[in-house]
Records
---
Amino acid sequence: MVNEDFLTMFHRLTSVGWSEENGVNRLALNEYDIQARKNLEDEMRAVKADIKQDDAGLIFGTLGSGNDNTAIGSHMDSVPNGGRFDGFYGVMSGMQLLKDLGSTLKNRKITAIDFTNEEGARFQPSLLGSGMSTGVFTKEFAYSRKDSDGITFEEALEKSGYMGEEQNRVKNQDITRYLELHIEQGPVLELENYQVGIPKGIVTMVVDNVSFTGESNQAGPTPMKVRKDALVAASRFTVAVRDMAKSSGKELTMTVGKINNFPNAYNVIPGKVTMNLDTRSPDKKTAEEYSKMAKEISEKIASEEGVPVDFKNQWTTETTIFDEDMRKEIIKSCKSLNLKYKELYSWPGHDAQYMNRVVPTAMIFIPSHNGRSHTREEYSSDQDLINGYSVLKRTVESL
């Protein structure tokens, strides 16, 4: 009955902002995100949870009393044309724990959390809400972030009705530990036939901005030998860093995922191309080393193509290592439930990496079918959803 209740709630609430054609477009604090938040608070009120919001828009629903407070959460905002499972699974699991354990709590509390703007799809950087709530970002920095329409994070919060109080921030509450249940967003668990993943931590991410500046000109009369084509340089760079990462022999990924081509017209030689390079590794030194090597490659290509390059670091994260004692409890839970588990690193970022700075933190993964995520094809089976929730529940009970 509990499993059926959880699945019913999950599939009902994840339908907000979803369509078969376009996936989920529940960007932070847009109309769909606000509706999902209202639905979550309705669920919290139904179990008589104490509901709070902080000044970063985080929603907290708490049951129980005492000084031991286990928080469980994730985010409900999505990327454009995203999937139904990313983030939402963790929020629904926290909500279900309030339902399942709320009436049995003695001298302890459980708090379910919905973090704001985890994806960074509307307001950059990602993890903006958890970063502000844990003190990583100042209020001035977070509130000044603008979306593509020039709307600031502060303005969106005020309009949404989720501008809460600073006193309710994570760092000001009595949270003892934090757990986040999430889809893997990669293919490893499914390919290797594991039912549960237990992240050791979250890899370092180095994000660089790369701009090649050439000369725009008419595509027809400009001879090939005198062109200064920024897109050619950018294309060579994209392939070069891909090949370098593939041949490195290290735990490493390098991705050019965002490109702006100016003037982006079929009959004009590209005059400027800007792109982001995303470099990740569990070892921070490796990530930084390969980012530096990418800079050298960009300069070599720029010289050969006659198009100057500007290579700047946007931000770098530290490798996050999760709490060992909590990970051991998760392993015990998997064994008691006869679920096959694998210890691994999380390659995407999560709110857990900032929560880890203020309280002991751990994560639990379930398989992503075909490793797909941030797309409408994102999928995890009902059985996998239940497996992950069962591990979470058993772990919270044991903690």
---
Amino acid sequence: MASRQHRCNQCGILLMVPQESQAFKCSICNGITYFQSTGPLNQAYNSLNHIAGLFRGFINTITPTSSVVNSNSGNYGYYLQPQSLRPSYPLIPPSPYGSKRAVLCGVCYHGRSYRLKGSINDVKCMKYFLIKEFGFPSDSILMLTDDKEERNPLKIPTKYNIQMALRWLIEGSKSGDSLVFHYSGHGTQELNMNEIDDKYDNAICPVDHEHKGKILNGEINATIVRPLPFGAKLHAIIDACHSGNVLDLSFVCKMNREGYYKWENHTSSRTDKGRKGGVAICISACDDSQVSVDTSALSGKEVTGALTYSFIQTVQNEPGLSYGHLLNTMRSTIHGTKTGIVTLNGPIASILNRILGLRIKQEPQLSSSEIFDMYKKQFIL
């Protein structure tokens, strides 16, 4: 039987296939490749698989199975590993990451005067929480930290790596998917010269923000909110200062100490433009004008972000609670906690910390892409 050489459309390996074949299955990655001569429908399928394969390359480099060390430079090189892809009809490449996906970023800024102590603890706790409480697969959770033990340069929370991770989070998502973005690090506000009603943009600070710049709320919205398909949901848990509406969502819930709330409409041509209909909800550490803290006062031992700790503790202790109950309980937990003077250092501050107990003044906030009843809608990831 006559045969010919042809490259697999999934992994690129060169294989011998029968001359008269219209398609073949790769013996290495199990991917299906159709020859272009079989018509436009199969050409479209091959094209879609090729596009999906390009993006999967990013996550393959983040979870390498082998590495090579350059002894002269100390740099690590990572090989790509082909992933199998089974054909699915209609012609939409199936997501290899499942219906639950998460990106967790913890930035502690080693060696800086504004170093944080709890950020890496936060993302480690969040990963365990998502796996144990909500069944997120471990290999569908991408964690970026500037932990000193982290050797993979693609898992450091630089601006570029966070941007790529957010694209990975949304890529290939579909109705029924649950996506989570958790960030623990510094947040700030930037003067907005383009908006009349909104003088400041919220922003998060990657580890290299001093050189590469911050990631503004408009960019986060454009990356993971607008492309969210109808029927999919995104939860963002942002443990940072000035993070009230850091996803630039259309509605912000304003709740008083008694638990009464109203929705403020923050819709603009920028936030609503091109939105595909998925639901995005953000639980942030504090109002735009407030700062958040990391402290050991909540856990009694390890330093954690006040928002992350109160969020995990509340959900674990009260399964099936509503969003309104969640927000109220988190606020009560934080308000009832006394901590030291977190903005001062040195011997005088240490003495004052032991003598005086100051209550944490941050108030967790909730914003959303759509309005709902805070006390009827059940929280679930």
---
Amino acid sequence: MQEIIVNSVPEFVECLGDVNRGKRALYRGQRRDLHLLPKIARLSTTLPVLEAKQAMLNNFKLLSVPYLKEKPANDWEWLAIMQHHGLATRLLDWSVIPLAALWFTVCKPPAENQHGVIWLFQPNPEDYISTFKHEVPFQINKIVLLQPRLITERIKAQWGWFTAHYFDVDTGKFAALDTEAAYISRLTKLIIPPDKFALFRFQLDRLGVNSAQLFPDLEGLCAHLEWLYTNLADEVHGSEKYDLQKVFMPLPKMN
């Protein structure tokens, strides 16, 4: 697996051109350099993990209906909505937009001064599945790749894709994409040094990549406005070689 350190957004874009060279690729940003595992695999559950997963799905189906604009067509779509609203599933988020993945890496200060990563994954045709031909998510026996219908504004804004991870009954664990032999050679890890998070954040915002764009709802708008008018812990003005001046929105006229 290739690992590359990048220190700015222009360097990141140039690196993508060298690594990808026009092939189909998916991207995932992480503040921490962790294995490529879904959230359900990283939690301690009160029931055996497969039972907990099924219970969360069943309860979500019962309780979420008043909040949905459209009823999901199958369990894959139920899982996609759960995933995009923070509930643990066997899905792992990816995007076809590399700058979106980069934003998710640097939108907050680094965790315990750790570097962040952007994973680049180059899938093969056999990795894809149709969510309508394979309607039972819990019967997969390999890691598969799927694109949900764009049934929420967040999925649409982020052009979201997912890897769905199988549960290995022999080990009692979910499979990690970066430890499976079939996928390792098709992964590239781009590393963001912790002292460069703020620079990336400001450069991305100047390109229109921020919380308001990637979360097209009131939550995303509020997160962006708060960032505009406050400083995160790593945004110390005057202490860096680059200019970290935020581009403020014009103040609205008050009647």
---
Amino acid sequence: MEYLLGKDPLRIEDHWNTMYRSGFYRGGPILMSSIAGIDQALWDIKGKYLNAPIHQLLGGACRDSIKIYSWIGGDRPEDVGKAAQNAAQLGFKAVKMNATEEMQYLDSYEKIDQTLARVESIRKATDKYFGIGIDFHGRVTKTMAKILAKELEVYRPMFIEEPVLAENNYALKEISSQTSIPIATGERMFSRWDFKDLLSAGYVDIIQPDLSHAGGITECKKIAGMAEAYDISLAPHCPLGPIALAACLQLDATCYNAVIQEQSLGIHYNKENDLLDYVKDRKVFEYKDGYLKIPQKPGLGIEINEDYVRERAKLGHNWKNPVWRHKDGSVAEW
């Protein structure tokens, strides 16, 4: 990214195209995450330069706030009924949980029943209209996803997420024919070209691009517009920090088809600190009645506590997802 040194930071579209199109190899998580980080920074610079929140530079807001949900349970979800009840008491109107532990290509109905029991416990602990997102997390094969999707219908979930891995999106045709539950996917897709076939095929209801991995605000605004043309809604993936969440909220403000926003307050893998620790004004992400207001300050609308960032940086960061194995010793999807 040496190309950017000394350039005008306000020429965001040109910089995006140069970073993407000037290389022989394109797309993928590494390049698109790098572009995303730079893109978010450029939009923040431009917003602060023009003394306006980013959403004002993208055509203005079409909403004042957006519904959010809370993560409950963990990688191996337990006691999610109580966790959902706690989330409801905190003011959330929806939660999301991992559906299953690891699952083989052809697994037992015991694991199906365990998932159903967990979802039932949430429904009993809240009410029949409380939103329940169920994340298959790519752990489930097409064979088992068809069974799960059909069995879960009785609990009327908000959506099922990533019923199969993105490389198996062809299977969504068969899965969607088995259920009326809305299907969400897209967190492991990185550009409008990745989403093109998914949208035109018509077997997804909610797309979940991650603004920190799918080319940033510039690219995800285009992906969201493509989805709207296909009558498909937007729910950006964001189990990340305050900059990522602020970027999502600025985009949500301008997208008519944005329906709900993921965020990481209290998420299970934040063990030592939380996203609010990194911002100077903790009220910027204060929610009420399950909704979060769109930040109105210039740029991303947040001010980072840079001293705390430097303090945490001294400790280093080397997070890796766990490696799971099935009982037979083969590697399992996490």
